[in-house]
Amino acid sequence: MGRSAPPSTSSPELRRKRTAAPPPEPPTPRRFCSMDDVMRRSRPVDAPPPVARAREAIYDAVLCDTCGSGDRDDELLLCDRCDRGRHTFCLRPIAAKVPIGPWFCPDCAPPAKPVKRFPMKQTKIVDFFRIQKDDQNGVPGKCRLSQDVRKRRKRSLVMHKKRRRILPFVPTEDRARRLKQMASLATALTSSKTEFSNELTYIPNMAPISSNQARLEEGGMQILPKEDKETIELCRTMQQRGECPPLLVVFDSCEGFTVQADADIKDMTFIAEYAGDVDYLENRASDDCDCIMTLLLTADPSQRLVVCPDKRGNVSRFISGINNYTPDGKKKQNVKCVRYDIDGESHVLLVACRDIACGEKLYYDYNGYEHAYPTHHFL
């Protein structure tokens, strides 16, 4: 029987064998003089592997693409696509804290959608803000309290200077202008995917209303005087009827949505209540929302409450905080944030702390009480 022919040199199997890489050479044996020498030259048990050490060295050399500095690495963000760095305070708008989850730099992030303006249709605005309808056509009637507001303001002006009472806001009389003001707020809320709410809301699986007891405030909380309480109730009634504070929400490329006065506002005028969902502070310890407000500071840290306007809120969430670390930043402040005991519950009120001219942006001291929020990078 004849021998079988040798395999063809052009077969795929043989080609793969010929082109395969040669096996790696075994490592050269290392010589040690003693056990002490072995222990001295060995790698610690908890030392990272070589690849991890190389990766850490790369990250340690990352610089901010905006300012060129590698300082403040605790506030230096790394893009999940290009690995380039940006400081939270070098971003525009500024990032209040390191975001949770993936982050992409402005060059790698998908293009931002232009702000879609809310339609300036009266019916849509009435439905959006749930304005009470007075007449048969569904159009909100002119607030009958406006005249009373003006009379009350003139009557209490002298007393205001002495007793520093809160004044009700004076809504814009021009209905078209008022619609523009409300449309600007509706634009900001819809762009932020936030539902309008002018009051504190209590949601299941968050803090219940029974937890908001002003008497639990550590050191006590000031009680809102009767006259000021009547003023707040008057303002709430006006807002339910479609008369809002003379404020315009505008978009700024450096600060995002901001609020500016659309008319002259007197000192001590009520601006808004800080509204949103009430939750325990410990539930929001890792929350990347940049507009959480302290509501109740109790001796027990587990019972401390905050207002979270990320799902529901009003114009207060768009008022910017000042840089309270510098004298120039303090000069910007024209609104103060005060917490009051109202009928046994804690509420946060925003009140003008000086005369505000038409067109001036509104700023308040975010650290008005506990000085815990990092505002040294605010504009």
Automatic annotation (TrEMBL):
<protein>
    <recommendedName>
        <fullName>[histone H3]-lysine(27) N-methyltransferase</fullName>
        <ecNumber>2.1.1.369</ecNumber>
    </recommendedName>
</protein>
<feature type="domain" description="PHD-type">
    <location>
        <begin position="61"/>
        <end position="111"/>
    </location>
</feature>
<dbReference type="InterPro" id="IPR019787">
    <property type="entry name" value="Znf_PHD-finger"/>
</dbReference>
<keyword id="KW-0156">Chromatin regulator</keyword>
<dbReference type="Pfam" id="PF00856">
    <property type="entry name" value="SET"/>
</dbReference>
<keyword id="KW-0479">Metal-binding</keyword>
<dbReference type="GO" id="GO:0005634">
    <property type="term" value="C:nucleus"/>
</dbReference>
<dbReference type="InterPro" id="IPR001214">
    <property type="entry name" value="SET_dom"/>
</dbReference>
<feature type="region of interest" description="Disordered">
    <location>
        <begin position="1"/>
        <end position="48"/>
    </location>
</feature>
<keyword id="KW-0862">Zinc</keyword>
<dbReference type="GO" id="GO:0032259">
    <property type="term" value="P:methylation"/>
</dbReference>
<keyword id="KW-0539">Nucleus</keyword>
<feature type="compositionally biased region" description="Basic and acidic residues">
    <location>
        <begin position="33"/>
        <end position="44"/>
    </location>
</feature>
<dbReference type="GO" id="GO:0006275">
    <property type="term" value="P:regulation of DNA replication"/>
</dbReference>
<dbReference type="InterPro" id="IPR013083">
    <property type="entry name" value="Znf_RING/FYVE/PHD"/>
</dbReference>
<dbReference type="GO" id="GO:0140953">
    <property type="term" value="F:histone H3K27 monomethyltransferase activity"/>
</dbReference>
<dbReference type="InterPro" id="IPR046341">
    <property type="entry name" value="SET_dom_sf"/>
</dbReference>
<dbReference type="InterPro" id="IPR001965">
    <property type="entry name" value="Znf_PHD"/>
</dbReference>
<dbReference type="InterPro" id="IPR053114">
    <property type="entry name" value="ATXR5/ATXR6"/>
</dbReference>
<feature type="compositionally biased region" description="Polar residues">
    <location>
        <begin position="1"/>
        <end position="12"/>
    </location>
</feature>
<dbReference type="InterPro" id="IPR011011">
    <property type="entry name" value="Znf_FYVE_PHD"/>
</dbReference>
<dbReference type="GO" id="GO:0008270">
    <property type="term" value="F:zinc ion binding"/>
</dbReference>
<dbReference type="Pfam" id="PF00628">
    <property type="entry name" value="PHD"/>
</dbReference>
<dbReference type="GO" id="GO:0051726">
    <property type="term" value="P:regulation of cell cycle"/>
</dbReference>
<feature type="domain" description="SET">
    <location>
        <begin position="230"/>
        <end position="367"/>
    </location>
</feature>
<keyword id="KW-0949">S-adenosyl-L-methionine</keyword>
<keyword id="KW-0489">Methyltransferase</keyword>
<keyword id="KW-0808">Transferase</keyword>
<keyword id="KW-0863">Zinc-finger</keyword>
